Each structure stands twice: as structure tokens, then as C-alpha cells.
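Re: the request from the purification team.
They wanted to know what the chain is likely to look like in 3D before they choose a buffer screen. I agreed to run a prediction and write the result into the notebook, where they can find it.
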Amino acid sequence: MGNIGIGLIGIAGYGRSHLSSIEACERLGRCTLEAVTVRPQDAEPEIESGLTARGVTVYRSVVEMLEGETDRIEVIAIPTGIPAHGELTISALEA
């Protein structure tokens, strides 16, 4: 089985915990973080520049990430506020 491509919606707040878990999975050779969505108001410049240096694509909207990564992402991590889970999950599944 090859690496699973992962997309991460957000790198602030709970996103940091998800990012840490994804990076642990990457070290085991089980997955690859392909893309993240970072809203300007949630900017984490140091984390973002480190991800970019590793070849992770950074998007400013979930729609852009879902449209741009259909061939590389198999799993979407959604560490957002609970009210957004439903809509984002449906969008991810449809993509």
C-alpha cells in the first residue's frame, strides 16, 4: 500500500495537533501531507513557511484546495469549529 495523501484544513488551534499527528504518520512512511488550507486570519507564518519548504501546497480557501488536489488527496483532516464540520465534510466527500 502506498502513502495516503492528506489535506489539512487549518494549521492553527486544533490544526496544530492534527499537523503533529500527520507528521508522525509521515515519519512512519504511511502518509504524505499534500496540502493545507490557511485562512489569513489564522496565519502561522513560521509553520506555513516550513510546510512550503517541504513541498506542501498552501491554499487560502477550502474550495481551492478541494478543486486543486483531487488527484493527490485521499483523506481530509477537518480540525475546525464544530458548526463547520457538516458543511466541510460534505464538500470534502463530494470532491
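For the purification team: Helices lie at 14-27, 45-53, 62-68, 82-94.
Please add any questions underneath this entry.
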